[in-house]
Amino acid sequence: METAQEESTTLTEPKKTVHVSGSVALLEGLIAEGTDTIFGYPGGAIMPIYDALYDYKDKLKHILVRHEQGGTHAGQGYARTSGKVGVVFGTSGPGATNLVTGLADAQIDSTPMVCITGQVFAHLLGTDAFQETDVINITTPVTKWNYQITDANEIPSVLAKAFYIARSGRPGPVLIDITKNAQLQMFDYEGYTPCEHIRSYRPKPLIRKEYIEQAAALINSAKKPFVLFGQGVSLGNAEQEFKAFVEKSGIPSAWTILGAGAIPTDHPLNVGMLGMHGNYGPNVQTNSCDVLIAIGMRFDDRVTGRLDKYAKQAKVIHLDIDPAEIDKNVKADVPVWGDCKETLPLLTALVEEKTHPEWLAEFRAYDKTEREVVIQPELHPGTGELTMGEVINQLNELTKGEAVVVTDVGQHQMVTCRYAKFNHTRSNITSGGLGTMGFGLPAAIGAKFGAPDRTVVAVIGDGGFQMTLQELGTIMQSGIDVKIMILNNRFLGMVRQWQQLFHEKRYSFVDITSPDFVKLADSYYIAGKKISEREELVGALEEMLNHKGSYLLEVMVAQEHNVFPMVPQGMSVSEIRLK
Amino acid sequence: MSNSNETELNGKLEFTITVYTENQIGILNRIAIIFSRRKINIESLNTSPSEIEHIHRFNIVIHETEEVVRKLCRQIEKQVEVLKVYYNVNEDIIWQELALYKVPTDIVAERAPVERLLREFGARAVVIRKDYTVFEATGHREETDKLIEVLQPFGLIEFVRSARVAIIKDSEGFNSKLREFERKDPGQEVIENEFLDKEKNVFTM
Prior knowledge:
Number of helices of chain B: 8
Helix content of chain A: 25-40%
Strand content of chain A: 15-25%
Radius of gyration of chain B: 20 Å
Oligomer: heterodimer
Strand order of the largest sheet of chain A: 3-2-4-5-7-6
Radius of gyration of chain A: 25 Å
Shape of chain A: globular
Largest sheet of chain B: 5 strands, antiparallel
């Protein structure tokens, strides 16, 4: 009788609560959001959270990075391969400022992350306390949202909001700064309720049928339609919808580097890479197509080249979830606002089933020229020093396009994006918009945690590797299996290329010396090898891929090799140079 | 209404941007940096409550081309705590600024045609003390500017002017919009930009 009475009165009774610290509530919230891995670094102002974490070791895996920047890039790599929200912990002051580069990278590349920073006690805010920095204001331009918590009662609801904002709409990084008193404060925790609605926040615009109809009409009347796709396709989990659209409409499709892999590299309608070092055909044909269909991409200046000579002849259809991207760089004739997971099927239903054999043949003709002038000599030089291209090509032969390939920034990145083969989505992990050297190694760690069953190969230059090489320590301690391939040309190659082409070969501070990377790896108990000869290449790659555990392969490549084709800065995409 | 501020300068016009936001610490900074990152000067900035409790209203005045203003507005509207952004040229709005003028009482009382000034500029005395008098005037920039010129010869001690506050002529307020926002699946009106809707649902520029 008593229980029945109790049950009947639960509605009027207060919710069941438990008395816990803010730190415990935070960890409970993370678990409720499906977090399994945290990349972080402890420090004074976040100690209560780390103290609570001690009791959550079996539920939350914490990866101790060697620098907070590495934590953020690992969080990004994790988010990019898994499709989940990356979670990063850091302390106040320098811990927090070290997050800024990764936040900026995640912001410009739309990567969902929740970063938690510790902060000094609330009563010390603004007093220049030890390790106090105004992290909210520092990170405002590089976060989708941020918030400072000074009272433990706020923790569950703010965390719920953070995850909702980070992953919904156009994803992005969110930072929550929690003062130490709030972490320690005991309060009545009512359990975790995920956030599903914020009245001032519209994650995706409403789909307007008239635009879908207009877009379909344009596509159906087009003689030379051309699709450009970006990361929006994979961020929206719309790979199948995208493939269905492209295959029905028969439209040649080219990708931005973050869009790579949304359809397989060898799909017959995949005509290659856009942009400054993209393929010949896609760049030139941008200025001869009659309808340009941009899907989940934002017309970055590295993609468009000179804007006033970009696709002026074409009608532009722009599909994007972020209204601020419509018309930002390239004016759209038909804006298809919305999540492409929803808009693409609507569009596919209205487009006619077609093929464009003559139009595709034009792409093939450009491809043939590019193969002769650029690709063949790059991938099969036969004699002379090893080229970056042939290393990637050999890697393709062995991984068959199944691996996750993580790159850093520079020449090796462009070469890898150009030549790496991707059978699957979420396989090309690179720093696109921000161009963050040092991204590769920590991102590869995160990528492996996000896709533990896949082979992860990090391709990194000798310059970028030296920016975050301390993360070898993270690999060592966590015992994960990441294949690291350093393409060493003993130069900061991309800057050197520009100095050669545009600064009369005045090689100003691009000559970089490196430590013995293999010995360095060895000191972290990571196996490795250095090669410079062609005949060693296949064997060394096989050894790396077959090795149980992490492996570092240093490949000495041609010192003054340039990445071509190239759209020089300030030039039109049709002025792309093959040499 | 013709005034110098409205004449085009390099295709730039004076725009008044109206932003409805949640009342949240930090939102001012989030909005301000959208201008400063493009090196755009905010000429006037006012934040105030709106007709709805907890919802704040910003009025921001800048000189820019409409194209840039439209991009700025979309970037502002995309901020999580921003509900809605409008931009208007001066013809679309009713606006006022408030100015205070401190002048030495003795000089003004003896030499200035005080009565005429007060009439002409719609000014009024807020404080009259032995040592100084404070006048208040409201109006457009050039009107309050004019009164500075007039008072300058009489030993103007201090001058201050508020930011612009503006009401959009054809706005119906925010109450009905807010109800839409509070629904989980809002209608078209809330979710789309006015800039688009005005053009018969066709996006041409």
